[in-house]
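Run log, item B.
One chain of 202 residues. Sequence copied directly from the ordering sheet:
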Amino acid sequence: MVAQVSRNGYFFLLDRVTGKNLVTSKYMPITNWGQGIDSEGRVIWDYSKASNPAGTLVSPYALGATNCWSPAFDPKRGLIFVNAARQWSYVTQSGFARLRHPTEYELDAIDYRTGNVVWRYELGDKGTSNLISGLLMTAGDLLFSGDSYGNFQALDPGTGKTLWHVGVDQFVTNPPMTYQLDGRQFVLVAANDTFFAFALPQ
């Protein structure tokens, strides 16, 4: 299978050999540019959301419900995790503008078999950037993410409960990574222009 958490607010699951649609679902509830899903799993465009002189409210906004923020997958639970943005655009024929600033961010856990969001975790709205961190899922049952308040954190992938967090006082905009050195496991994350490496006490 091929899974895609799209910036248009929808989740798609395809047969990787044939391209046949298996699941299409709306993971961002405020997404409003579609009016349904056709028999092949494609979203049916709502033409009332096209730009017009009076303007119209459209969600997701121009940068998308998600963007380059890498998702993560938990094969044990069948969950795909994605950091997403809740935001509207006011679209006219002369352009668009974000309706609300700053953008609100959330972490969604999507069951790939059904497309349903199992839990949501609020990441805040403090960030001044249009980016939020990517995600890292580990075999040790930890889901790592940044939030918009300058925190780096580990969550329970089954519930979204915060297990650990640390303030790095900067906006995390990259996916974390993990590596082993001399038998010790590290988690590395960058925030702004600084690298932070974490490990369990020896």
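Observations after the first pass:
- DSSP finds no helices and 19 strands in the chain.
- The two ends are 41 Å apart (CA to CA).
Flagged for discussion on Thursday.
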